[in-house]
Amino acid sequence: MFKAILIEKPEAAQTVRLAEVDDAQLPEAAVTVRVEYSTINYKDGLAITGKSPVVRKFPMVPGIDLAGIVESSASSEWRQGERVLLNGWGVGETHWGGLAQRARLKSEWLQRVPERFTTRQAMAIGTAGYTASLCVEALVRQGLTPDRGEVLVTGASGGVGSIAIALLSHARFKVVASTGKASEADYLKGLGAAEVIDRNELSQPGKALQKERWAAVVDSVGSHTLANACAQTKYRGVVAACGLAQGMDFPASVAPFILRGVALLGIDSVMAPRDLRQPAWERLARDLDSAALDRVSTVISLSDAIGAAQQIVAGKVRGRLVVDVNR
Fold this sequence. Notes:
alpha/beta, Quinone Oxidoreductase, Chain A, domain 1, Rossmann fold, 2 domains, 9 helices, globular
């Protein structure tokens, strides 16, 4: 038996509880992992609260991230005792996820925890940090260099935004952080933001083309914020879009793309292949300050995860929530 957050839907409404689960209920897959840490991401918050139809089958153990130790493996790729992590791949949506003390997973979904990180630190990064790194990698592949100008990071006090700031500032970019939490200015500047602006400057309907300011953007918000960010991006600038905290809509014009040559890059962290995941994790291992990880993360227990999901959906969480599933 092991402990897990279990989402069930016996009738119209789903239920969520901390449950004792039998090993025999684990799904079929090649590798069994003794989970040490998981996280609460925004998507996990949506799944647990039922605010969005993230969960596709029931019962479901949520948690799109996990890190732990291989307990047994039917795959030649993984040996008992190896430290592994997982981000995405539909785990927590269609396959039992990481908010549990044990998980059974496909071998191709797993990656080795970088030697520099503990399993707790790997989950302080989690999908949010890995997504931030995918964004930075995409901007750099487009030829972005620090001399091009300011980089805007929206949703800055969240997990993606926090780690994007840390990575970009380490790479010597001048970062401007957009947040709705004025009280977080010192926190964001501590991560490396040169300036902090109010999200209201971007969150309302705006003109199709606006004054050019940003050389690049990392956006985890969507909707009017993304539309305004594109409208303010410089000629030949680059926008990496990876989230929808404000909404899935994109009330924009083609003007920035056909008149200024702005590139809008969609960043998918869920099904990204290993040849994109590996460089993203290498950047994190190389460039992310351990002190920054401590600043952006808070450790909670598995029993606290349900309440934390409600907090993250309400926008009341700063940085990353790491879940010690054995606490």
